[in-house]
Structure formats: C-alpha cells, structure tokens
Amino acid sequence: MQILHVCSEMYPLLKTGGLADICYALPQEQIKNGHSVRVLLPGFPAIINGLANKQLISQINTEFIQTPIKIWQAQLANSDLIVYVIESPELYNRSGNPYVNSSNLEYSDNYLRFALLGYVAYKIADRLDSNWFPQLVHAHDWHAGLAAAYIKAQNLATKTIFTIHNLAYQGIFAAAIYPLLHLPSQFFAVDGCEYYGKVSFLKAGLYFSDSITTVSKNYAQEIQTAEQGCGLNGLLQAKADHLYGILNGIDEQQWNPSTDKLITYKYSVNRLSLKKKNKSLLQQQLNLTCQENKVLFVLISRLTEQKGIHLILNCVSEILKRNGQLVVLGTGDSQFENKFKQLASQFSDSIHVTLSFDEQYAHNLIAAGDVILVPSRFEPCGLTQLYGLKYGTLPLVRKIGGLADTVVDCSLENLDDMVATGFVFEKFNDHDFTQAIKRSFTLYKDEIMWRQVQRTAMKRDFSWHNSVGEYLSLYQKLISSKV
Ligand code: ADP
Ligand code: GLC
Questions:
Q1: Ligand 1: distance of its center to the CA of 251 in Å?
Q2: Is the distance from CB of 2 to CB of 135 less than 8 angstroms?
Q3: Ligand 1 centroid to 300 CA: how many Å?
Q4: pTM of the model
Q5: Which long-range contacts (C-beta less than 8 Å, at least 24 apart) are formed by 275-282?
C-alpha cells in the first residue's frame, strides 16, 4: 500500500510531545512491513534544516499566500523514510515553538499555516509528485484536520483516516476566516467543519475522513461521553462504527534499556543491579542525597492541567516525609514552573527541577528512576508510562485513557497473580493520589516483590507489532472498499 502521513511534528526533526514519537515510529514500522509510506510536514526551521539532500518536487502558487510555495522531498538520515516538506518562509520560518509565539500565544495565522498543510496533502494525493502518490492519507491531530476536507471537496478517490492524539486541542477559529480556506461553502455546516458558529479543523478531520482512530481502546470509549468528549461526543457516537482505538507502541530502537545509547549504564531484566548505578549517578550529578534506598520519583511531562501537575504539587510533602526524592523535567504553564522551582530551592537535597525540553536527559531520568509519575486528568494514550514499564521504572498513573489500558495496579491479588506493573489510582484528587504514593513506598520496602513487579513490567510487550497490524488491516479495508 502507498500511505501518506500528515502531521505537524516528527522525531528526531521536531518534537514537542508524544505526537512526534508516533509520527516517526509508525511509518517506519509500516515500511518494515513492506509498504510505501511517506510523511508530509510543514517547513518549520528545525524540519527544513534537519533534512539533507532535498529535491524539489514542485513550486506552486496557492490561494493561501501570495508567494509561491515549494514542496521538497528528502530521505530522513539513517532511515528508509521519505519526507515531503512545505517551504513557505512567511508561514513557517519562525524560531521557537512551532505553534505559539514567545508570549505563549497561538500565532494569529495558524489557520493559514495548517490549512496549507491539509491542502498540500490533497495536492500530493492528486499526483503533485509524478513519481509517487498515496492510496490513503493518514492525518494526525487538528493541524492536519483539513486534509480530508480538501480531498472530499475535489472528489478524489483517495481514502482518508484521521487519528485523534488529543481531542482537547481542536484548532478552532472565527467564522470570518472560513472563506480564506477555499473550501466549498456548504462544508461550513453542522454536517461539516462548523462548530458552534466557528471553524473547527479537528471536526473537519472527524467529519470528512473515512475512518477515525484514536490512540487507546479506552480513550475511544471515553471520548463518546459528555465528560471526555470535549463537545464532540455526539459526533463521535454517530461515527462509532468508523471509530477505532489502536494503542500506540514503543519505538524499541529508541527506547530499550539494553541498547539505549543515551543512558550511562545499559541494563536488562536480568541485570537490574545496573539500573541502580544510573540512580546513584543521577543523585550525584544533581546533588541529591546519595542513598540507594530513597524512592526516586521522576516526572517527564508537559506541565499542563491535563497532566495532573497540581496533584503532585499538592502532595509532594507525602514524598518528602517518607524520605523520597523527586526529579522533574518539563516545560509548560508558568504557575507550575514557578512552584517547582520554589520547591527545588527549598528542598535541594530531595527535589531537582529542570525546566527545558531535553531528550537525552529524559532517557537518563527514566533509566534512573524508581517510579514515573503520570497522574493525568485525561490521557489519550501516554508514552512515558510505556517507557517506564520498559525500563523497570514503575508507573504511578491515574486509571484513565491509555494509562488504564497499560498499567496494572499492585493490589495484593495482582501481586499474587504476578501481573502487577505499577500503581493505579481512580479519582482525580489528592487523597487517591496520595494512597498510590503510599503503596509505592510500602512495596519498595519489599525488595523481592519490587523486583518481581519490575520484571513483569519490563516483559510486557508494548512494541508496535500488534498495533501496526491493526492499522494495516484498517487501511486495507478502506482501500479495497468501493464507496
Ligand atoms: P503528550 O504527548 O501528551 O505530551 P506523551 O506521554 O504521549 O504525552 O508523550 C510525551 C513525550 O514527550 C514523551 O516522549 C516524553 O518523554 C517527552 N517529553 C515530555 N516532556 C519532555 C521534556 N521536558 N524533555 C524531554 N522529553 C519530554
Ligand atoms: C497526545 C496525547 C498522549 C499521546 C500522544 C501520542 O499528545 O496527549 O496521550 O500518547 O498524543 O499519541
């Protein structure tokens, strides 16, 4: 099959979250399965500069911007993956975060920047590249939401899939911009991309695509409820026959403690003593009290409301009073950043905070930690708990979304059945979170039991193997259907 993925970020070129990991790993796995798979990305500086030996595919005029845009093609370094990139300096050549300006505000022309992404996906489906075209366009998140709309507007036979990585981000714009998208006027309707009088790129993706997927089975159910549906539960219920939950996988080339080039002491399920060396090293490097028996909690996260950061801030005393340690790596809301900074200066032998985005350090923290915290309010899939499982760093998670699908609580019966892999709490409140923290300290005192849970966690298979098969069967079904 010939497949084009459309997305706004992709590891290792540009990453702000899990989307980038998935948009890199999934296409590669599909290529390994013998398919011809390419990715289309906007020409943000990190993407343009990260690609060598680019070939010009086409230069075209569009109605989005006066100057012509260029579509380049390049092979990603150390990979079989071919990437198309849209060069439009006026729209994409801005330093810093790709979505927001230095004051953390959405760029006012984001509708144009991402309409162009969807439009070029359609052009590639319409054979812009004389050497290759996709049978199916797979668009990810709201940034790529208009791809299916442009394809439907032109009645192309190309099949379309839209994957929801996060329903909370919808790409909503004032109705006044609709004419500037150059879509048929009848598409701006309840049965289309209109959302309470505004334009929703996400809704366009949901409405116009042939199938919808999201990144865990549990989240696929949750988003059909009023509580988690972000106002789109009605539409998702109506489309339930075309909505599939397919769990994200781990890219084991990047995330495997026995081969990870970014960590100091590589280890495996049979060499767990080496994991402890990573912990001691980190304690030394961060000037934390160097003691092996202190439970080391790590947090690697966007510091936003979604991620349950206030639970950690409210309950950090529970960690400190049991002599635990907390190491944080994250960026996000300034109120959370400031509170973490305060805590780190107040308790410098037990808490360390780094407010930046650092891939190598993230690997080192996961290798060194005892427990990785993911107490999210909602979580479509979540990747850090999967990395935690793989590295024997037990996840402490809320029972929600993909976290509920992937972590098994250390209840006594689960310990007895040898299926426990972490600590799971139900209600999004300080009490339930604290109970889970307490359980982790209690289990840690039993070294043999802790090791057993680490081993169970590390042996769970969250590779792409199964999920890639699910995507490919869905592609096959759509491509072979005549409608
Ligand atoms: P989300 O996509 O909602 O942010 P995920 O758990 O799916 O959450 O993915 C987050 C990804 O971003 C993981 O690969 C995680 O390691 C990485 N990450 C998050 N914050 C940082 C950071 N400050 N530095 C390095 N990596 C980070
Ligand atoms: C989103 C979600 C996260 C998911 C990631 C990759 O950013 O918040 O749960 O793991 O996308 O699908």
A1: 14
A2: yes
A3: 6
A4: 0.97
A5: 275/367, 275/368, 275/391, 275/392, 278/364, 278/367, 278/368, 279/368, 279/369, 279/370, 281/368, 282/327, 282/364, 282/365, 282/368
In this structure, the residue with its CA closest to atom 12 of ligand 2 is 165
Read off the tokens for 221: 């159910």
- State yes or no: pLDDT of 482 exceeds 90: no
Are 249 and 25 within 8 A, CB to CB?
A: yes
Give the CA distances from residue 164 to residues 54, 201, 229, 313, 372, in Å, rounded to whole numbers and listed in that order. 30, 12, 12, 29, 25
The verdict on the CB of residue 359 being under 6 Å from ligand 1 is yes
Q: Is the pLDDT of residue 333 over 90?
A: yes
Closest CA to 99 of 187, 231, 201, 233: 201
Residue at token pair 């006044």 = 176
Looking from the CA of residue 21, the nearest atom of ligand 2 is 6
Signed CA dihedral, 415, 419, 423, 428: sign only: negative
> What's the gap in Å between 15 CA and the centre of ligand 1?
8
pLDDT at 283: 98
Q: Which of 467, 465, 471 is nearest to 136 (CA)?
A: 471
The whole-angstrom separation of Cα 294 and Cα 129 is 58
User: In the 8-state DSSP scheme, what is residue 127?
Assistant: T
Q: How far is the CA of 62 from the centre of ligand 2 (A)?
A: 32
E strands in 155-312: 159-164, 172-173, 194-195, 198-200, 211-214, 243-245, 296-303
* Distance between CA atoms of residues 442 and 432, nearest Å: 15
> Is the CB–ligand 1 distance for residue 395 below 6 Å?
no
